[in-house]
Amino acid sequence: MFPVIDQTYHAKLSDFGLARMGPTASKSHVSTQVMGTYGYAAPEYVATGHLYVKSDDVYGFGMVLVEMLTGLRALDTNRSAKQHNLVDWIKPSLQERRKLKSVMDSHLEGRYPSRVALKIAQLALNCVESEQKNRPSMQEIVETLEEIEMAREPPRQPRVHSSYRADDRSMPQQQQQQQQRYHHQNQPMQEAKRAYPLPPRT
């Protein structure tokens, strides 16, 4: 599965360049020699060579989502035998927030909205369903992603620590800056007056 960028910077997923054209409206599937990358190709395609509409784009896209969430490769023989195929053992951990947190990419250092991550994980699970008929269409995937984007909470703004009093927060920024410059410029004179007070007038 290869994410590629076109001339307008739109991302596309490609991995079936050598396979036959997918099924048309009059056919449920086509039979073709398996050409996809293992780990991204749907299990029914690998097992039978039957290419369904939801066998290539949808399943492969789901695997890319799982990789993005976990930071792990879809197929890695360096992992233990039970974990060679990522989707085989990661599915239970994508179904609830607490378990999902334990398998999220550690490089993210927890800097992500957990609610959004859970929705993405649920979408990924739907895409890699064992039964191809239970997977969403690419149109449904796009609509789900758009809904997630619209509902996403804005990032939290860092707190600004100030030496001013609490009632100064309502003061316009320009006025605060002028006041700060005034105190800074007059500080030496004020210190001199305290050190050498003038004698009282007679």
UniProtKB/TrEMBL annotation:
Pfam families: Pkinase. The keyword Hydrolase does not apply. Keywords: Kinase, Transferase. It comes from Salvia divinorum. This is Serine/threonine-protein kinase pix13. PROSITE patterns: PROTEIN_KINASE_DOM. Residues 148-202 are annotated as: Disordered. InterPro entries: Kinase-like_dom_sf, Plant_Ser_Thr_Prot_Kinase, Prot_kinase_dom.
